[in-house]
Amino acid sequence: MEKIAIISDIHGNVPALEAVLADIHGRNITRIFCLGDIVGKGPSSDLAVDLVKKHCEEVVMGNWDEFIGRPSEIAVVQWHRELLGQDRLNYLNSLPFSIEFWMSGKFIRLFHASPRSLNERVQPWDDYEQRLSLFLSSGLCKEPIMADIAGYGDVHNAYLQHLDGRTLLNVGSVGNPLDLTQASYLVMEGRYQDRALAPLNLQFVRVPYDIELAVQQAQESHMPDLEPYIKELRTAEYRGKGVDH
């Protein structure tokens, strides 16, 4: 049996990422997958990229990674792009769309938001058919088959649901959780790259971290959109409709 830690939505929050990495390593887990949105919102996109590159075996692109990876006249994008530098921007632009593998006889597909788009938002309370569609493949995926287990990030709400005999899960957010004021990630345990049925375990982990240190770093950085970011860290309440996660 092998364990994989799956993280997502770091958003430049290094105190949260360091706490999660310490917890993962304390469990002797060496394989880490990241489901995107490494950058944006928080003050330390540059350091977050460096840590993800160092510790994560596979990483997919998130909507913020794509958004900030492209030149723009938008001030918040320019701020993060200047902080990142060209080498890190090149890394963000090189990230793949999905991670796909077999584990304990289940075909698993991991992506940022949906198997069709980086920007399609699906919440745990959305229409049943919309959630069921997350098991489907698309031209952006590697294999043209339905997933037995579909996992994603994007909405910053950790959950697990069983739909028509398949398992849908969201790993939550490391750096910008919007359900609890603790970092979230998932541990998947089973027989990696094995198509034979075997036990498979999914465990959600919540990790407390120094929120006030993250607030202090944000304040000292003079980052854009400071107050909404601080409010989300302290309350886990979404800043409002019409703003991307």
Automatic annotation (TrEMBL):
CDD domains: MPP_superfamily
InterPro entries: Ap4A_hydrolase (IPR050126), Calcineurin-like_PHP_lpxH (IPR024654), Metallo-depent_PP-like (IPR029052), Pesterase_MJ0912 (IPR011152)
Classification via Pfam families: Metallophos_2
Highest taxon in the source lineage: Bacteria
Start and end residues of each Calcineurin-like phosphoesterase domain: 3-189
Similarity comment: family membership: Belongs to the metallophosphoesterase superfamily. YfcE family.
Cross-referenced PANTHER family: BLL5683 PROTEIN (PTHR42850:SF2), METALLOPHOSPHOESTERASE (PTHR42850)
Identification of the protein by name: Metallophosphatase family protein
Lineage of origin: Bacteria, Bacillati, Bacillota, Bacilli, Bacillales
